[in-house]
Amino acid sequence: MPRILTGITPSGTLHIGNYFGAMRPAIELQAGGDAFYFIADYHSMTVITDPQERRDYTRGIALDWLACGLDPQKAVFWRQSDIPEVCELTWMLGSLTPMGLLERAHSYKDKLAKGIAPNFGLFSYPVLMAADILLFDTHVVPVGKDQKQHLEMTRDIAIKFNHTYGETFVIPEERISESVAVIPGLDGQKMSKSYGNTIEIFGDEKALRKKIMGIVMDSRTPTEPKPDADKNLAIQLLKFFAPKDLAADFENRLRAGGLGYGDLKKALFEHYWNHFAPYRAKRAELVANSDYVDQVLRDGAARARAVAEKTLARARKNCGLR
Ligand code: TYM
Q1: 165 Cβ contact partners less than 8 Å away, ≥ 6 residues apart
Q2: Which residues of the chain are under the pLDDT cut of 70?
Q3: Is the same domain home to 31 and 160?
Q4: 189 occurs within a structural domain
Q5: Residue 38, φ and ψ in degrees, nearest 5
Q6: 223 CA distance to ligand 1 middle (Å)
Q7: Ligand 1 centre from 107 Cα, in Å?
Q8: For ligand 1, atom 7, which residue shows the shortest CA distance?
């Protein structure tokens, strides 16, 4: 059975890009595989320095995953920092990782371009991510397209380790589904916690309605035909939430002329909001049952750690550590 693993960094509130790009595919895969899902709180240290904020986002992500359908009977679910073995493996892998490989990382270059002062954590982030994946003998990693290069780096690092010290790690593959590879944000760029263009999975109804109604459209009048209707952001987003024929009907009406942008955005909001309604109810139950959430993460950590210890022992042995 293939081992499936993915992680999400608690550096903000989860949005529909996280949901469609990673969470939903992971939840769909949990029944048919050997699923390992975690909250990447060590990773959040490169962007967050407020301990309470880290705790809150970590808790929020645990609730979000469980509310959206992660089933702890089927998937092992834990907090990355409960398995400190990952840091030791990061050192072993980092000692074989060329600087040039890390210098080419898009995420690192983007952060530099944004004027963020680089630190060692930011630079070595792909090595920690490789350790996350290799520590669990992972075969398949469901992610959005922005993580593709990190998976390529993970493979490069694993191959180099295996070549240097003998067969130690499974070589993993990313699973990126084309239709959800890059969910666009409110401004049409990739939706991202760091771009301020997100539609959260869970949040205040009024604020989210305002965000969606505030999507900027062009100045064409409602009656004007719009031959580029398929490029319209609200149509693109509606396709994730509305049944296929209904979304196609909206697209056709926009193309032909006669559908105003306001009505389109209203429909988008309604479909988005209704889509997550059952998950909102589940999340409210979980909030009221925080002992259960703690227990899930504790059990998950114990199960994950048993696997991590074995892999780490193999890696230590192969590279001549005690
Ligand atoms: P993070 O927290 O930025 O994103 C979590 C997941 O959401 C996907 N995603 C998107 N997919 C489609 N469209 C979007 N607009 C969009 N925005 C985000 C991401 O591709 C990702 O799959 N480094 C990782 C977390 C991580 C990890 C790992 C993932 C740490 N270790 C090991 C897999 C395996 C990150 O920061 O993702």
Answers
A1: 315, 318, 319
A2: none
A3: yes
A4: no
A5: -145, 165
A6: 40
A7: 11
A8: 18
